[in-house]
């Protein structure tokens, strides 16, 4: 049982981060905090991919003369890292669009608090 | 020679014009809309050629950089994607032709960013349809989503807030989909759809597979506005500019529904899913609830655009229901409904755009019989599309519902059949109340309840009227040609 917890500790951290992000998006009243939650949620998935790629006693995926190419267990899997580079770029773009929308919202309603915002919209 | 390059060329046409529009707009800002029309026209022409080529020579797998999968990324141009690409690019062409005057009225001076975003969004949608790689799909999903957040934020005062809500929900959906890919990648070691579908039966007893499927269905379901994940849609469609809504509503949710087809029927296969959990039934029941919920909420609306948005939730339910039936009739009915609904919804949203331009509002309670004198062709198109939505023959909407009903009878699923029939009735309620307001009184009669006789014909300009009428006429054409389309769709059903 303990092995299950400690053997997968990287995944537990991903799950904790995922929950924190979800909590931030659902329960925080300020729109900026919701975006922070969103960003944490994305990071948790990025870290999940990165921890999937890791192998014990493996080196970076650059050809080493001492290790033949056939020994795939000695090289880390580079693909998840590459995918996550793209996912990070997507995350940055999403943050950019989100903050742009927040600026537009603030300019129109002078508030970023969700409750106040909804009241001002219905006025 | 060029035939084999068509999948990449369709996507590249949008990239090219997404660059050309800002460049030429520096010189003449009024060139943005014509260039967008040229760009989507080019893509529509290429998809038409590609579709004819598919019919003659069969499917194309386009390997980027010559790297064959599973190492490289590919575009798969088979029957389903060729069909979808043709539909979405044709609709986009008509809507972009229509948006000339609306863009001048609703967001003057912002044509350049608007049409650049429209091109990028179409790039994302085409990429989503064409790609044969799960991660590549995620990237295109985010491209189209980011562009559509921007398009939805252009509009009324509260549009940025509804776009922000969509961004939060949509990005969460995208992230869940990415997590699902992660699960599948750890158990199969590949991201290519064709490669993975060969490997999945070997690892089917791994619980990660079904968890991945649920994550992916939830993630894409957000984009498709499948019932419990539909919350973003009504506000986003109501407050966005008329031309944004007309562009996103017919295309966006359909592309996401297409990806559900790819994942459920092509990648996993219904046998594999149902051996573990009755997920297809769950999706079907959610779709049914969505159909009824959307229809009932549409009846309660007084704003035309909001009513159409709720009706979109209900219509996407039909498509997902056809998916959950997983038999040839359901498949053909659902995909025929993709075409029909794209044409009908585009037509209805163009009508709402026409009315907003001329009247300044689309409040149903203020509709009256003067409309039929002021906008004879617009209202005629509306009537055709509305009757097609209700599903009366010989219009297109009847046939997709007919094949869906045949599919439910084939599966002996009487609940779904009842839902189809009841919701047609509800559709009739919310469309006929508008038709009743517009057509049931005589404007020339001396009756004091009718409007004054000095109402003049005030129809919108040709560039707006032509796409509306073409879409309305296409409903007759699809209706009469339904046997041809359904025959084609039955042939590409993946599980013979």
UniProtKB/TrEMBL annotation, chain A:
Pfam families linked to this entry: Oxidored_q2
Subcellular localization, as worded in the UniProt entry: Membrane
Record keywords, A-Z: Membrane, Transmembrane, Transmembrane helix
Family: Belongs to the CPA3 antiporters (TC 2.A.63) subunit C family.
UniProt keyword Transmembrane helix present: yes
Name of the featured protein: Cation:proton antiporter subunit C
Domain of life where this protein originates: Bacteria
InterPro entries hit by this protein: CPA3_antiporter_subunitC (IPR050601), NUOK/Mnh_C1-like (IPR039428)
Topology relative to the membrane: Multi-pass membrane protein
Positions of transmembrane segments: 6-26, 35-54, 83-106
Automatic annotation (TrEMBL), chain B:
Major location (coarse): membrane
Recorded topology in the membrane: Multi-pass membrane protein
Pfam families noted in UniProt: Proton_antipo_M (PF00361)
Every NADH:quinone oxidoreductase/Mrp antiporter transmembrane domain range: 132-426
Matching InterPro entries: CPA3_Na-H_Antiporter_D (IPR050586), ND/Mrp_TM (IPR001750)
Keywords carried by this UniProt record: Cell membrane, Membrane, Transmembrane, Transmembrane helix
Cellular localization per UniProt: Cell membrane; Membrane
Transmembrane segments: 6-27, 34-55, 75-99, 111-129, 166-187, 207-226, 247-269, 275-300, 377-399, 414-432, 469-493
Family listed: Belongs to the CPA3 antiporters (TC 2.A.63) subunit D family.
Name assigned to this protein: Monovalent cation/H+ antiporter subunit D family protein
Upper classification of the organism: Bacteria, Pseudomonadati, Balneolota, Balneolia, Balneolales
């Amino acid at each position: 049982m303990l092995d299950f917890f400690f053997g997968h500790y990287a995944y537990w951290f991903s799950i904790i981060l995922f929950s924190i992000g979800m909590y931030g998006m659902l329960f925080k009243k300020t729109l900026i905090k919701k975006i922070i939650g969103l960003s944490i949620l994305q990071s948790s998935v990025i870290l999940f991919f990165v921890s999937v790629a890791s192998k014990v006693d493996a080196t970076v995926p650059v050809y080493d003369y001492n290790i033949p190419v056939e020994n795939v267990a000695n090289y880390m899997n580079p693909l998840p890292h590459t995918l996550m580079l793209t996912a990070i770029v997507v995350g940055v773009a999403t943050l950019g669009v989100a903050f742009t929308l927040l600026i537009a919202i603030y300019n129109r309603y002078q508030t970023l608090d969700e409750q106040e915002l909804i009241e001002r919209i219905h006025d | 020679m060029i035939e084999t390059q068509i999948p990449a060329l369709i996507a590249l046409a949008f990239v090219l014009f997404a660059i050309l529009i800002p460049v030429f707009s520096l010189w003449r800002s009024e060139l943005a809309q014509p260039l967008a029309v040229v760009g989507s026209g080019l893509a529509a022409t290429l998809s038409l050629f590609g579709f004819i080529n598919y019919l003659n020579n069969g499917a194309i797998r386009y390997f980027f950089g010559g790297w064959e999968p599973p190492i490289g990324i590919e575009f798969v141009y088979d029957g389903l994607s060729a069909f979808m690409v043709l539909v979405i690019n044709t609709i986009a062409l008509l809507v972009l032709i229509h948006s000339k005057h609306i863009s001048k009225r609703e967001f003057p001076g912002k044509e350049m960013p608007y049409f650049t975003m429209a091109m990028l969004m179409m790039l994302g949608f085409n990429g989503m349809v064409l790609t044969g790689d799960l991660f590549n799909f995620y990237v295109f999903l985010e491209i189209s989503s980011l562009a559509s957040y921007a398009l939805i934020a252009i509009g009324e005062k509260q549009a940025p807030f509804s776009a922000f809500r969509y961004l939060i929900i949509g990005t969460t959906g995208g992230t869940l989909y990415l997590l699902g890919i992660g699960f599948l990648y750890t158990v199969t070691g590949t991201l290519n759809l064709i490669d993975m579908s060969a490997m999945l039966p070997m690892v089917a007893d791994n619980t990660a597979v079904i968890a991945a499927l649920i994550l992916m269905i939830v993630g894409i379901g957000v984009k498709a506005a499948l019932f419990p994940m539909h919350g973003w849609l009504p506000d986003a469609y109501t407050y966005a500019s008329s031309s944004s809504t007309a562009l996103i509503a017919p295309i966006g949710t359909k592309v996401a529904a297409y990806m559900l087809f790819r994942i459920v029927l092509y990648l996993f296969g219904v046998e594999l899913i149902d051996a573990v959990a009755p997920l297809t039934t769950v999706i079907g029941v959610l779709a049914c609830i969505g159909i009824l919920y959307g229809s009932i909420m549409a009846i309660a609306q007084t704003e035309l655009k909001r009513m159409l948005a709720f009706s979109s939730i209900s219509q996407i339910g039909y498509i997902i229901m056809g998916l959950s039936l997983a038999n040839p009739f359901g498949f053909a009915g659902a995909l025929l409904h993709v075409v029909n609904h794209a044409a009908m919804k585009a037509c209805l949203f163009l009508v709402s755009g026409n009315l907003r331009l001329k009247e300044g509002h689309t409040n149903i309670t203020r509709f009256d019989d003067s409309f039929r004198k002021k906008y004879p062709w617009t209202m005629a198109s509306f009537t055709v599309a509305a009757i097609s939505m209700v599903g009366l023959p010989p219009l297109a909407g009847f046939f997709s519902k007919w094949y869906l009903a045949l599919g439910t009878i084939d599966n002996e699923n009487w609940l779904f059949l009842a839902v189809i029939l009841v919701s047609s009735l509800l559709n009739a309620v919310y469309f006929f109340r508008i038709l009743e307001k517009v057509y049931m009184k005589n404007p020339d009669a001396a009756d004091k309840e009718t409007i004054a006789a000095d109402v003049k014909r005030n129809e919108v300009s040709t560039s707006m009227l032509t796409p509306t009428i073409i879409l309305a006429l296409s409903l007759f054409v699809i209706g009469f040609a339904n046997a041809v389309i359904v025959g084609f769709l039955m042939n590409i059903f993946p599980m013979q």
